[in-house]
Structures are given as C-alpha cells and as structure tokens.
Amino acid sequence: MRTPMDDKTRKQSPPPPVWYEAGLGHVWLPYAQMKTMRPPLAVARTEGCRIVLADGRELIDGIASWWTACHGYNHPHIRVAVERQLKSMPHVMFGGLVHEQALTLARRLAALLPDDLDRVFFCESGSVAVEIAMKMALQYWRNRGVRTRQKFVAFKGGYHGDTTGAMALCDLDVGMHDMFRGALPEQFILDVPQDETTETALERLLQSRADEIAGIVIEPLVQGAGGMRFHAPEVLQRLRTFADRFDLLLIFDEIFTGFGRTGALFACEAAGVVPDIITLSKALTGGTLPLAATIARRKVFEAFWSDDPKQALMHGPTYMGNALACAAANASLDLFEQEPRLQQVRAISEQMTEELGPARELPGVKDVRVKGAIGVVELEKIDDLEALRARFIAEGVFIRPFGNVIYLTPAFTIAARELAQLTGAIVRVLKTIN
Ligand SMILES: Cc1ncc(COP(=O)(O)O)c(C=O)c1O
Q1: What would the pLDDT profile of 258-278 be if each residue is shown by its tens digit?
Q2: Beta strands in 37-148, from DSSP E residues, in sequence order
Q3: pLDDT digit string (tens) for 281-300?
Q4: Catalytic amino acids?
Q5: How far apart are CA 190 and CA 157, in angstroms?
Q6: What pTM was computed for the model?
Q7: How far is CA 261 from CA 341, 344, 371, 375, in A?
Q8: CB distance 409 to ligand 1 below 6 Å
Q9: Ligand 1 within 6 A of 161 CB?
Q10: 174 falls in which pLDDT band (50, 70, 90)?
Q11: How far is the CA of 160 from the centre of ligand 1 (A)?
C-alpha cells in the first residue's frame, strides 16, 4: 500500500493521527488490493449525513455505510436506547436464555412482515443470514424425508454475501468471487425471468430438475452489489407461481432492499408476494450494530417441529440476538413508526430522478435509473475505480462506485441541499472524465 505521505494530495494536510500510522500496517481491508490501493481515509467521527475526517475535512455521505445508516449517523433515539441497554445487559447468550429486546424485536418484525412470516432466527451478518436461509431450506426437505433437493436457483446479477454458501448463489461472472469457481457448490444461476425467453429457460429447468432444487433465491426488485439492477414486481409474482407449481421454497434476500430502501418498507410488500423465507440485515439497526435475521413462514418452521431432536435447526451463532443490537433495532423501528421515512424516500427519489437525469446525455453514460432511495448512473466502463473514488473525495462527497456503476444510497434523513451536492458532484465529475 502506498503510504499516506506518498500521496501528493495529502502533502498539505496535517499529519495522520498516531493510531493511523501505528495500526495501518496491521489491518487487512475489505475488497482491496492492499499493495496498490490508495490509503484509506482516517475518520474521526460521523454526524447526520456527514463523515468527519481526522484531518478536519467533512464528506457528505452518499452510501450510508453500505446502506445501513438509514436515519443518518448517531441518531439520538438509537444512541439513548443502546446506552440504556448497555447499563443493564450488553449481551447474554441466546442458548437456553432469552431477553426482552430480542423477543420484542422478533414480535415487531413478525408484525411488520406480511402473512405468516413470523419465526425469526437472529445472527450477526447478512451473509450468515443467507447461509441460515439455505440451511433451513435444505433441512426443510430432509426433515420431510426428501434428500434429493440440495440445490438452489439464483440469478445473474445477484449478490448474497461473501461466505462460502452465499458466494455460490452470486453471479460469479459479475461479482468478485470468480476465482472460487470450481471450489464452490454449483448452483443454477439463471437470467432473471423478465421476458418470455428467460421465463421459458427457468420453466424448462424446473420441469426437468425441480426434484433436485430446494429453493429459489432472489434479491427482490433491486439486485444491489451485483450491479444495482432493477426488475419489475411481476418477476417476483412469476417466481412465486413457479415456486408453488414446482413445490419449491421461495427465499427473498432483503438485506439491501428491506427497511424502505426501494420505497416500500419491504420489497416483497411492494410486489404483493410473500416469500417462504426472508433475510434482513443492513438497515435493521439503523447502521449502529451488526445484526441480521432469517425469518421463516409457518410451514417452514413446522417442518422442524418434532419430537425428534435430529429435526431441530442445529445453528446458533455466539452473538445471536445480541441485546445491544436488538435494542438498536427496536429503536430503529420506533423511528420508522415516528418519523416520515417513506415520505422522505419518495422525496429523495424525485430529487435524484431530476438531478441525475442530465447525466443521461453525457458521453460514456449507459443508463440512469432511480428506485426509492437508490440512484444509479451506469457507465459503459470505469477504467480506474480508485481514481474516480478519489475525484469524489476531492469534491467533498463520499461516493464509492464499483464495476461500471456510480450509485447513491443516502440516509433517508439527508437534507435536499446535501443530496444536491451528491448529485451535483456526480454530474460534474462525469463531465470531466469522458
Ligand atoms: C443482498 C445482500 N445479501 C447479503 C449481503 C451480505 O451481507 P453482509 O455483508 O452483512 O455479510 C449483502 C451485502 O451487501 C447484500 O447486499
């Protein structure tokens, strides 16, 4: 890694903090070639929609920390709830013990989700929630005496996490897990069935191999980290019909789309489709503490309900149901009840549509699209991602393009003028790079 002092842009800045110099050589950063990457930015604190750097600069955050901080950073309501919980019990194991925050959260999630999606299994990260969904689906069949249904159908453009089982559900062609091809269990990765050809391809596969398939997994309405691609609600309705016809479990990975990001509280609700299993994380705690949940419908849970101990779900992450994280999530749900989040998402949507629209005319721009509080400018290609990211920093905004997309997923509480700075920076930078 180039050291901070090699970077010309930092020559006039104050020296990095002591902890930065002392610790950087010992940390392994995500999604980064450590040798060639630009030095990461030292963050001193966060506030609302701003990231304050150790050198005093302030960046307007366009990403909300990988889509988690939906109420902005340091929301006082969440802070107070976590502080209160910290005083009485930060954590207690969930094996044989339960506590108020986790049970309250489970009850509230069950009430918010449609139909009988009402049995909540907690864990600490999105990828693990997906692993648990897969395990539930596999065991659902085994508990019913069916051992052939061991595979999953997932979709091109999809991303479900970085653990082994979740990686196998990703589109290896667009994602970052390509080099593990051959080492991962092979799943059926098909085009999202958006037209007759792709629908027929899925139908043919199911007609010939449904007895090998445990379930269908999709990020509903928006495939996020695989390219910020959108599809119509009818796709999900079609998948529900296929799942029913071929007796498959339908799994929605709402880790990105859940909690208002696409405009409805949950994408499944917007599509009017009830999956058999749903995964949630990211904005669940409003971006404060790691927590995820895999929620099953009654028929899934009932397949585990037995006098036979072998039919139990043998899974139990050490920190599952962490009391601080559950307190944060309960406080985050309060905010969805008390503050006009979905209205804010609508306003963000309108503003991004208007302000990103002009980018459509710029050279090198392939598409501009907005859904809920997700704004995407897709380019023909991005030659140097790191350089582009640095351009945005120089503009005073934190925007982290990947693949060939520049995107915004701001906090729902972002002020119109802050959002205008984000969209303005995108249009300005695009005018100069192509
Ligand atoms: C749809 C989806 N599923 C799963 C994951 C994995 O979540 P985590 O990074 O918490 O493991 C992500 C993360 O971006 C995601 O967007």
Answers
A1: 999 999 999 999 999 999 999
A2: 43-47, 50-53, 58-61, 117-123
A3: 999 999 999 999 999 999 99
A4: 31, 159, 253, 282
A5: 9
A6: 0.96
A7: 10, 11, 8, 11
A8: no
A9: yes
A10: confident
A11: 5
